[in-house]
């Protein structure tokens, strides 16, 4: 076999269980997880005593090499993934954008973009218009291309945004395919008005970005998407929950038994919008993403929601632009390419913010950074677990070490970092991806082309009970009134 690795004496953590054990890997598969595994001397041994051995992170929300706002996000599938691996993330799911409305052309362009991948990845598909062709292409994506989730934008009027009418058709299609509907929830018409108003008021700087699209517009769109998904009776995944307003809609929906999943992102958990008021444009502009980073207080509330299970997982929306690209919007915040980094920092910041602070347990950390994503997108326990038979995507984490985040040392191609100067407790010391040691002793050893495309099958468990729910919905409809033709 190609490689044999023994990770010795660490605390092996899964979402459901932790124990001191050895982990033995052959090729790209975990072969055994148990105490005291004896091996020959052809095996590479990693001493993990006093450290946590956890499933590599899975980032559910990433935009590598994305053509967007007149430019392209500068981390491509190689540099973005290299950064991910240095930060303990071993798989990401990227959003395929259609090309001229064609899902197939979009898929093919992302097959090209991802050719140099150095870690495993999967795709969500964005749907930005609707007709018979798109509907047919959705079937092909699910049945032949390994995609089981479709994202709809309620914002970006004039480009990606789709109407409620079309959203309903698309939700129905998702339901019939056993695919998961996802939404970017902001009211695009209102954002457009908000932006015009800021410009009229002469507010052209990055603070105008926050002021033009406040939390109420995220709350409205989240509530609307949830209700429309309820009307169609299909599960819904709300991407990047950034505000209390949106989070409370997710909480309410889940409490009433709706199958709604809430994803938050690292930036929403730890940053606040005071950065957008920074007097230096080049600093303020790097914090422009959509939905915007919110006023202080939203971040703490989202942390609490994550710890209580109101939100289920943490992504990044990693979508990086360098300062030259951000400067496109020097005179008009509407032209600042939207996006922040995070794929390399996520595992460290979530640990520091949530575990080190005592808000969640180590097993919950594994759940929100890895296992839950694998379950939701139907690739568990191949991914998201340290079990015999799972893929060998593993990190060794030292809770007693620490890391200082900086653009000077990060692996992203971006010349800035929104977490610049932040020191976090805990450190990913080793990353094993696909059975290869790709990060050790602060050194990256990645192989272009070694990453695999992970097909994600349509759903079983998420749609369980659908027929029963459907039946009870239909039986709740009151019988129509039979009227005679005459109107006397
Ligand atoms: N928001 C961002 O900030 N970047 C990429 C796309 C998005 O919706
Ligand atoms: Zn056990
Ligand atoms: Zn989005
Ligand atoms: Zn996004």
From TrEMBL:
<keyword id="KW-0862">Zinc</keyword>
<dbReference type="GO" id="GO:0004157">
    <property type="term" value="F:dihydropyrimidinase activity"/>
</dbReference>
<comment type="similarity">
    <text>Belongs to the metallo-dependent hydrolases superfamily. Hydantoinase/dihydropyrimidinase family.</text>
</comment>
<dbReference type="GO" id="GO:0046872">
    <property type="term" value="F:metal ion binding"/>
</dbReference>
<comment type="subunit">
    <text>Homotetramer.</text>
</comment>
<feature type="domain" description="Amidohydrolase-related">
    <location>
        <begin position="52"/>
        <end position="438"/>
    </location>
</feature>
<feature type="modified residue" description="N6-carboxylysine">
    <location>
        <position position="151"/>
    </location>
</feature>
<dbReference type="GO" id="GO:0005829">
    <property type="term" value="C:cytosol"/>
</dbReference>
<dbReference type="GO" id="GO:0006208">
    <property type="term" value="P:pyrimidine nucleobase catabolic process"/>
</dbReference>
<keyword id="KW-0378">Hydrolase</keyword>
<protein>
    <recommendedName>
        <fullName>dihydropyrimidinase</fullName>
        <ecNumber>3.5.2.2</ecNumber>
    </recommendedName>
</protein>
<keyword id="KW-0479">Metal-binding</keyword>
């Amino acid at each position: 076999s190609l490689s044999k690795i023994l990770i010795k004496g660490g605390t092996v953590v899964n979402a459901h269980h932790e124990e001191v054990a050895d982990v033995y890997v052959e090729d790209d598969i975990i072969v055994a997880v148990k105490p005291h595994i004896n091996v020959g001397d052809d095996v590479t041994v990693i001493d993990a005593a006093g450290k946590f051995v956890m499933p590599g992170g899975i980032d559910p929300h990433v935009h590598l090499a994305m053509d967007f706002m007149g430019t392209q996000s500068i981390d491509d599938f190689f540099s973005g993934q290299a950064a991910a691996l240095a930060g303990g993330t071993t798989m990401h799911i990227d959003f395929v954008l259609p090309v001229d409305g064609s899902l197939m052309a979009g898929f093919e362009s992302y097959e090209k973009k991802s050719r140099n991948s150095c870690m495993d990845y999967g795709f969500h598909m964005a749907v930005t218009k609707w007709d018979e062709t798109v509907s047919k292409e959705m079937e092909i994506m699910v049945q032949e291309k390994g995609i089981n989730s479709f994202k709809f934008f309620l914002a970006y009027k004039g480009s990606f945004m789709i109407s409620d009418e079309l959203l309903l058709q698309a939700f129905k299609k998702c339901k019939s395919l056993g695919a998961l509907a996802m939404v970017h929830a902001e009211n695009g018409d209102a954002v457009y008005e908000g932006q015009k108003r800021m410009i009229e008021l002469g507010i052209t700087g990055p603070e105008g970005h926050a002021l033009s699209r406040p939390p109420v517009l995220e709350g409205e769109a989240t509530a609307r998407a949830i209700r429309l998904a309820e009307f169609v009776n299909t599960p819904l995944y709300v991407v990047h929950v950034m505000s209390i307003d949106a989070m409370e809609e997710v909480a309410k929906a889940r409490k009433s038994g709706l199958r709604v999943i809430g994803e938050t992102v690292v930036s929403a958990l730890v940053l606040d919008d005071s950065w957008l008021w920074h007097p230096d444009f080049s600093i303020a502009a790097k914090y422009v993403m959509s939905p915007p980073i919110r006023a202080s207080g939203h971040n703490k509330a989202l942390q609490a929601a994550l710890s209580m299970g109101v939100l289920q997982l943490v992504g990044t929306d990693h979508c990086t632009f360098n300062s030259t690209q951000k400067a496109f919007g020097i005179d008009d915040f509407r032209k600042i390419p939207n996006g922040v980094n995070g794929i390399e920092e996520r595992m460290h910041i979530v640990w520091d913010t949530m575990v080190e602070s005592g808000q969640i347990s180590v097993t919950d950390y594994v759940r929100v950074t890895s296992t839950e994503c694998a379950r939701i997108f139907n690739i568990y326990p191949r991914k998201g677990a340290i079990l015999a038979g799972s893929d060998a995507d593993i990190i060794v984490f030292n809770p007693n070490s620490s890391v200082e985040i900086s653009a000077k040392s990060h692996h992203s191609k971006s010349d800035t970092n929104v977490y610049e100067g932040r020191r976090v407790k805990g450190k990913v010391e080793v990353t094993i991806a696909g059975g290869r040691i790709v990060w050790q002793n602060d050194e990256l050893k990645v192989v272009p082309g070694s990453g695999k495309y992970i097909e994600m099958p349509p759903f079983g468990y998420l749609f369980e009970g659908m027929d029963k729910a459907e039946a009870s919905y239909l039986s709740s409809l009151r019988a129509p009134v039979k009227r005679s033709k005459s109107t006397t």
